[in-house]
Amino acid sequence: MNIIAQREIYDFEREWLKEHPYRLSRKFEEEMPEFPNHDEARKYFEGKFEGNFLPSNVDIIDGKHLYFYDLVVHRENYDKFKKDLLEKGFYSGMDGALSYHPVEIWEDGRIHIVY
After folding, report:
1. Residue partners of 69: CB distance under 8 A and separation at least 6
2. Cβ neighbours of 110 (radius 10 Å)
């Protein structure tokens, strides 16, 4: 790849990150503290990401609760994505899928973030 192409990719990534301030990286997950339970992990995310950490679902696997959340990184695209899913039953394009991170928190505080 030539220097001009590398520069264009870098500029694109920098501009994209400005528009998506909550987009996470694996480094974020590695640097996260450990949590003793679901409530402490949830409070951490709610405090760090204000109104952009939204409950999505809960399930029980092997007798343990698993809580699902959406961490919104682009509110306008996320709202359109959810509205279209509700009204049409589908969403076209990648903007919806890239508008949030699914976050899974086990009752014992373990966390999995989908990138």
Report:
1. 42, 45, 53, 54, 55, 56, 102, 103, 104, 105
2. 15
